[in-house]
Amino acid sequence: MQQRHGPIRVLIADDHPLLREGIAAVIAGQPDIELIGEASNGVEAVDRYRHLQPDVTLMDLQMPELDGIAAIRAIRDEFPAARIAILTTYQGDVRVLHAIQAGATGYLLKSTLRKSLVETIRTLAKGKPHFPAEIAADLACHLGAEPLSRREVEVLRCIAQGQSNKAIARQLGLTEETIKAHVKNLIAKLDASNRTHAVAIALRRGIIDMA
Questions:
Q1: Which of 67, 121, 138, 192 could potentially form a cystine with 197 if both were Cys, beta carbons 3.0 to 4.6 Å apart?
Q2: Top-confidence residue, 88 or 63
Q3: What digits encode the pLDDT tens for the residues 41-52?
Q4: Domain-by-domain residue ranges, the chain?
Q5: Residue 6 gets which letter from DSSP?
């Protein structure tokens, strides 16, 4: 690998100005890192990346207009070597997996920014991935597990909203027996004891959210 010349150029994409200001303040204290741009939504993030082509991008998971996963995918389609870390409050192996599949090479929890921000930026700038140990362990724990189908996730979201099988069947245009079969399958796949337990597991793993 070629030796770097000049500071690591960083782009931040997050819809919360205070968080961007906090990250900027940390970066300002590092002589080898330079903040070169900010974006407040996913569309801006793709546009800023295209024009600035930073060394490292910090990308919020949930943003207006285009979410972080879609923005990463768009950037990596155009710039395959882009080094992007997901910046999020959300933990869960499924969210991590989706980020990796989109092209993320790092994962930063907002709750640990003060401790891990600078290390993550420097690691990614060297072309190496950076995932916190607890995130990597959580991901490894579920490797090989059978994923829920798109329909099973839809059913699970309805269950999380407190809907009965009859109401779910009516909403999705399916028979109640089909819904019962989906519920049985998703409970088995998640190794849950009942519907409520399945929802709790899905929320923890990032399969669904309550937004």
A1: 192
A2: 63
A3: 999 999 999 999
A4: 8-141, 150-205
A5: S
